[in-house]
Write a sequence for this structure.
């Protein structure tokens, strides 16, 4: 769960840590009036996180002794936003 309150007309939300792998992400937003009362609340599917680490070699299944001290992996990082230039992907 990520919870944040930001006021204004042009806002951006950032997380301080990676979201869990292979999970469906939902977003919920509420618009409040000047008294703090909710005028409207909306929830929607925001996307899905992917797997970050994948074993390439040797080819094996879960809970199997791989028989090597040097397995090969591939890593996929999440998109990273440059904090100095809003909205620009690195």
């Amino acid at each position: 769960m990520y919870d944040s309150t930001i006021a204004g007309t042009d806002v951006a939300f950032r997380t301080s840590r990676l979201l869990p792998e292979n999970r469906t992400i939902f977003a919920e937003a509420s618009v409040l009036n000047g008294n703090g009362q909710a005028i409207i609340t909306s929830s929607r599917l925001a996307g899905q996180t992917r797997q970050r680490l994948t074993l390439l070699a040797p080819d094996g299944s879960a809970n199997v002794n791989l028989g090597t001290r040097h397995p090969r992996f591939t890593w996929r990082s999440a998109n990273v936003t440059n904090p100095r230039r809003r909205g620009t992907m690195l």
About this structure: Confidence is low (pLDDT under 50) at residues 85-90. The CA atoms of residues 21 and 51 lie 5 Å apart. The longest strand covers residues 38-48. The two ends are 25 Å apart (CA to CA).
